[in-house]
Design a protein that fits this description.
The protein is an alpha+beta fold. It has one helix spanning 2-28, and strands at 31-38, 46-53, 56-64, 77-87, 93-95, 98-112, 118-133, 141-148, 152-156, 162-172.
Length: 173
């Protein structure tokens, strides 16, 4: 038991050191970070969290629970979708008040086909781009674009950017 406790402590300290070093890296230069609930048409509400700097970062977007089902690729109705991946170093850019970054994500989807069959799939190495504006509720916006194999580009929302229902996005140029 003592060895297990020591191992847990070492892992906790390592994670703390990584998070602290990321916070220091983001505090000094250009960055975008934030999270919250992104509003959208019925079925496309999502929760997201991200941080990006010129050296990279992380991105996570989850459409589950709050989503009423939306068409996506071979799914007639998606009940859960999870998009997560690192931010590519050097991909962070700013233009006209919009910050964007890109990377390669893993997407996990659970939904129903047109025949009602439940279909689950995980797709790896999916290129994505995240675009956002700064602010809080109703002011900040977000858009996620992915390029799916055999399907092509898709965006959430399909036009423009969706406002944050809760949370905050901070942009430092």
């Amino acid at each position: 038991m003592r060895r297990f406790t020591r191992a847990v402590m070492v892992v906790a300290l390592a994670i703390s050191a990584v998070l602290a070093s990321q916070s220091v890296a983001y505090a000094g230069g250009p960055s975008v970070s934030g999270g919250g609930v992104v509003d959208g048409p019925l079925g496309t509400t999502s929760q997201l969290g991200f941080n990006a700097s010129p050296s990279g970062g992380q991105f996570l977007c989850v459409m589950a629970g709050r989503s009423g089902g939306f068409p996506f690729g071979p799914w007639a109705s998606v009940q859960q979708m999870h998009v997560a991946g690192p931010v590519d170093a050097g991909s962070l850019s700013f233009s006209g008040g919009v910050a964007s970054f890109s990377g390669t994500a893993t997407i996990h989807v659970v939904g129903k086909t047109a025949s009602g069959e439940v279909m689950t799939a995980t797709v790896t190495n999916v290129p994505y781009t995240s675009r956002q504006t700064a602010g809080g509720v109703g002011a900040a916006t977000h858009r996620l674009e992915v390029i799916l194999p055999d399907i092509g580009p898709m965006a959430f929302p399909s036009d423009g950017r969706a406002p944050l229902r809760s949370g905050r996005i901070t942009i430092r140029e």
